[in-house]
Amino acid sequence: MSDPDPIRPLHSLTLGELETTLTESGQPSFRAKQVMEWAYDREKRVESWDAMTNLPAALRSTLKERHPIRVPEVLTVSGSEDTTRKLLLRLHDGEFIETVLIPASPALYGEESDRRTLCVSSQVGCAYGCKFCASGLDGWKRHLSADEIVSQVLLAEKISGERINNLVFMGMGEPMANYTNWLQAVSILNAPWGVGLGARKMTVSTSGLVPRIRDLADQSLQIRLAISLHGASDEVRSQIMPVNKKHPVAELMEACAYYGERKKQMITFEYILIEGVNDALAEALLLADRAKGLRAKINLIPYNTVEGLPWKRPSEAAQEEFLSILRDKGIAATIRREKGHDIDAACGQLRRRVEKDLVS
Ligand code: SAH
Ligand code: SF4
Question: How far, in Å, is the centroid of ligand 2 from the Cα of 340?
Answer without folding.
Answer: 19
